[in-house]
Request: fold
Amino acid sequence: MMRKETGDTKRMNKIAPPPLFRRLLSPCAPRLADPRQREAFREHLLSSAWGGVSNGVIILTDVILAKALGAPGWQITLFATLGPAANLFSFYWAGAVQGRRKAGAFLLAALMGRLPLAALVLWTASPALILLSFLHSVATALLITAANALYQTRYPEESRPLCFGIATSVGTAAAIATTLGSGLILQTREQSYPWLFALAGLAGFVSAYHLYRMEADRNERRDMLGWLRIGWAALRRTLSPESPARESRPTLMESLRLASRTFRENPEFVRFERNFMLYGFAFLSLIPVLPIYIVRELSMDYNQLSASKGLWSQIGLVALSPILGIWLGKLRPIRFTGRIFLLLALYPLCLWISTIPLIHGRVDWVYAGLLFYSVAMAGVNLSWTLGSMHFAGEEEASMFQGMHVALTGVRGLLAPTLGYGIQRVFGSAAAFLFSTALFALAGLLMLKQDRDLRNGRASGT
Reply:
């Protein structure tokens, strides 16, 4: 005898995810009992997948500058500086999105930093690529700040790291496939890169749309036109001179004062960020060094470059993000981060080995370093995105994450130039050893902070 569906049953079936997503949801299903949480996770997966397609092209920007456009070293360093420096806008974004709907923020980011990438079809010079990459980074800082508050509200604390880890794996798998495919295209048609960036812009726009759907209530329009209407209305209310929303929006100075107060009231968060600052200097100092080294010293072709930037540097994110998400959920996040920083020190160490004269398999050592990088970055990605919530507690995480992202801009103003300077004066090997030492120091200091907290020796006590 067939059971007749009730109205509630029909509604549940209507929002149930399709079979593919049901299989992806299975590890989280026991912890996502609320159908709204499962629906949010489905949108998170879709946003990550489209974002991965976009990032799979964006990740090749530095090698396209070095190889296809023949950009000089100072332009590559400028690109490496402007990207992280764009995160300084998060000092403002954090205050601007706190306590507000995020639909307008997602639309602004999509219009400001995703769709404009298509302009490369008309303007193909290296300054255009650097400028549009900067706008992309400014928009990414806004997306990260706004999306972090969504992860806090849409997922229960115990399942948040695992859900984020699975979404990261999905996005990274899409990025790897896109990067390898782009490498094959560039190997035969090097000047087709503007069309690849146009595709990246469109995919990034769709990714932001699914973040809107992740936030939207069930009684709101959830189609693309609905997002454009709701998001544009939110932007008009914020930007209108007569709008109460504009009057309540914090100025830059007010946002900075709020950030300063948050730092004063959370000394352990300051200590955590100090350790992350050392990690960031180690990481960002290599951004201009690595493409110059692998393109001009090792003379890699596009197939090797796409394998380096796509497969070897990201495979660990696909395989380990969900596993490390479970680990992060069970371990103390500061200790977790310290161990990951120590593992990450093997990345520049392998790059340094590849510079040793007469060493066998120099490219293989680069691949090995990038493999260590991808494994460690699976953990860093989780800690970087979710670690600030550990200090936020019951407060909205957007302020903590906004400051966390903005400090990337502070080190981004200095670290790439420092790394490039070391490479120019002392050689690539010295730059790799400098990075190795900073990663190790950051890891040891993070582990010391964890021990102090465990033993009751918190900052200021």
